[in-house]
Design a protein that fits this description.
mainly alpha
Length: about 90
């Protein structure tokens, strides 16, 4: 079970890092830059449902923050379930 717990934690951290990198690249990189397009392709399926639910706030997009919080919550729930099974 410990390997699954570590895997969940690593995946959650990796997604969180990718979201943070995507936010920063959206400010500094051209939308057609290959790095930015790759990040958008990876994360847009996760961000799109959140963007549909959240109200528009002008130029600020809170969907990355919501995604990070949701990823952390799901990871903690899964780790808690796996830890209780051990």
């Amino acid at each position: 079970m410990a390997i699954f717990i570590q895997l969940i934690n690593v995946v959650a951290q990796l997604i969180t890092i990718l979201v943070v990198v995507q936010v920063f690249t959206s400010y500094f990189m051209d939308p057609y830059h290959p790095v930015r397009q790759s990040l958008d392709r990876l994360l847009e399926p996760l961000l799109f449902p959140i963007r549909r639910i959240l109200p528009q706030t002008g130029v600020l997009d809170f969907s990355p923050l919501v995604l990070i919080v949701l990823i952390q919550i799901v990871a903690r729930i899964l780790v808690g379930i796996l830890a209780s099974l051990s």
